Amino acid sequence: MFSLRRISLLLLPLSFSSVMFAQAGGGPGGAPLPQGQNPNGMHVYIWAGLKSHGEGLHDYPQFLADWSKVLTQHGAVVDGALHAPRAADLERADVVIVYKGDAGYVSDTDKAALDAYVARGGGLVSMHDSLCGPDPAYFATLVGAAKKHGEVNYTLEAPIHYSVVDKASPIMKDMPELTITDEAFYSLTMAKTGTFHVLANNEIPGTPSAGTHKGEVVPQIWTYEHSGGGGKTARAFVFMQGHTYANFANESIQKMLLRGIAWAGNHPVDELVNYTPPPRRGRGGATEILKK
C-alpha cells in the first residue's frame, strides 16, 4: 500500500464535477483517458463535504482528493464532489462513498435521487458521522443504523479497539484486532428490516461524553443488505471511524475499506485490493509498470 500525502487545499475546488471520469470509449467529449485509468473499473462516487473540526480531524475535502487517487490506482473510475450526488451522477455509479458531516440532512430532490439509486440496487459506503442527521430512522433504512444529530452519542477522542466478530468475512481478511485513537458512536437507531451483519465491535471507552454508556459493546464496522424498494438487493458497508484522518493511512484499514467498497458495489471483494495496472509505454517506447 502507500501513504496518503497531503494535497494543498488551495488547489482543491469546492466542487468536483469530475475528479476522474472515464468511459470505455474515452473521457468527456472523446478526450483521452487519464494516464493509468482503468476504463473497465467499477464506478465510485465520493460524496464529501466541507471540512469541520480542527487540524487532522474530519478532513472530508482531503479524503476526496486522496481517495480519488487511491481508488484510481486500484482500478476504479472515480467521480465526486462536496455536495450530494445528482441523479445524473448516480446513473453511472456502482457505489457511493459518503464521508461528510451529517449526511442525513438532504434536500427533497437529493433524497429522491438517492432513494431511486438504492431502489435499483446501488451500493453505499458510510464513514464516521455521515450516518448522522435529523431522522436516523430514515437513514438507517439505507445503511443499517444511524444516529440522531444533537444527541450526545459519541466518545470524542478515545482508544478504539476493534474486536473482529466475523473473522471469516472476506472484507475482514487479515484485519487484526488493532486499537486506534478515534471516536466511537453509541445509541444507534437500527433498521427494522434487512440483514445487519456485524464485522467488528468496540467496547465504549470511559470518556466524559460516554457517561453511563462506558463498557457497552457497539458495532463499529458492519454490512447491511436490504430490498431497495425496486425489487433488487441493495448493499451498504459502514466504517464508523474517520474522526482522526490519519487513520485512513493505516494499511490494514485501507485494505479493509477497499474490500468493503468493492463488496458494497456488488463487485468481487478483492477486485480493488488485487488490481494490477497494465504496463504502459515509457519514454523511448520502453514498457514499464505503473507502481502503486
Outline of the structure:
The protein has helices at 60-73, 87-91, 108-119, 136-143, 251-264, and strands at residues 43-48, 77-81, 95-99, 123-127, 132-133, 145-148, 158-161, 163-164, 179-182, 189-190, 195-203, 217-227, 233-239, 279-281, 287-289. The chain is of the alpha/beta class and 292 residues long.
Please characterize this protein's 3D structure.
The protein is an alpha/beta fold. It has a single domain (9-289), classed as Rossmann fold (3-Layer(aba) Sandwich). The protein is 18% helix and 25% strand. β12 and β13 form a beta hairpin. The longest helix is centred in the N-terminal third of the chain and has 14 residues, at 60-73. The relative contact order is 0.15.
* Beginning-to-end CA distance, first to last residue: 7 Å
Low-confidence stretches: 2-25, 286-292
**CATH topology call:** Rossmann fold
Q: Do you know the CATH architecture?
A: 3-Layer(aba) Sandwich
Number of distinct helices: 5
Global structural class: alpha/beta
Shape: globular
What's the main sheet like? 8 strands, mixed
Along the chain, the helix and strand elements come as EHEHEHEEHEEEEEEEEHEE
Q: Can you tell me the number of structural domains?
A: 1
Percent in helix: 10-25%
Q: List the strand order in the largest sheet.
A: 2-1-3-4-13-12-11-8
* Beta-strand content estimate: 15-25%
Average pLDDT, to the nearest integer?
A: 86
